[in-house]
């Protein structure tokens, strides 16, 4: 019988999830946006990533800060953000943030490196009608 072991594992995962969410909340409160972006991406929370992007843009000189944070993300994190912003771009309330991130990616990534992103073809196809 492995029920008890599975229950302990599930409880440990749930506790870890709660700890990560608390850490994310603390990072946002402390305005440590790069770590907050990374954690929200790792938790696969598109809405939270959007909230971080919006918080950065509200800051003084927000565009520059957003650019600095997006550039410092790893390639896999940028791929995740690209996938998230495809959805953001379809909503008029979030399209400006999506366009800001797209602009940063297009200005700072070489076309050849963008072509290496997972799902870039479908992302571009989905972005074109709304952009």
Automatic annotation (TrEMBL):
<dbReference type="GO" id="GO:0000472">
    <property type="term" value="P:endonucleolytic cleavage to generate mature 5'-end of SSU-rRNA from (SSU-rRNA, 5.8S rRNA, LSU-rRNA)"/>
</dbReference>
<dbReference type="GO" id="GO:0030686">
    <property type="term" value="C:90S preribosome"/>
</dbReference>
<feature type="domain" description="U3 small nucleolar RNA-associated protein 13 C-terminal">
    <location>
        <begin position="21"/>
        <end position="131"/>
    </location>
</feature>
<dbReference type="GO" id="GO:0034511">
    <property type="term" value="F:U3 snoRNA binding"/>
</dbReference>
<dbReference type="GO" id="GO:0032040">
    <property type="term" value="C:small-subunit processome"/>
</dbReference>
<keyword id="KW-0539">Nucleus</keyword>
<dbReference type="Pfam" id="PF08625">
    <property type="entry name" value="Utp13"/>
</dbReference>
<keyword id="KW-0853">WD repeat</keyword>
<protein>
    <submittedName>
        <fullName>TBL3 protein</fullName>
    </submittedName>
</protein>
<keyword id="KW-0677">Repeat</keyword>
<dbReference type="GO" id="GO:0000480">
    <property type="term" value="P:endonucleolytic cleavage in 5'-ETS of tricistronic rRNA transcript (SSU-rRNA, 5.8S rRNA, LSU-rRNA)"/>
</dbReference>
<dbReference type="InterPro" id="IPR013934">
    <property type="entry name" value="Utp13_C"/>
</dbReference>
